[in-house]
Amino acid sequence: MGIRTATLLPAATELVCAIGCRDDLVGISHECDFPAGLDHLPRLTSTPLDPLLPGAAIDAAVRGLVAEGRAVIGIDADQLRATRPELLVTQLLCDVCAVGDGEAMRLAQVMDPPPTVLALAGRTLDGIYEDITALGAALGEPDGAAGLILAMQARFAALRYPLRAVRRRVVVIEWLEPLFLAGHWTPELVALAGGDDVGMQPGQHSVPRSWSSIAAAAPDLVIVALCGFDVPRIRHELDQFTDPEGLVVLTRNEVWLLDGHQYTSRPGPRLVDAAERMRSAMLGTKAEGLEAWRGRK
Question: In the predicted model, what is the mean pLDDT of the chain?
Answer without folding.
Answer: 92
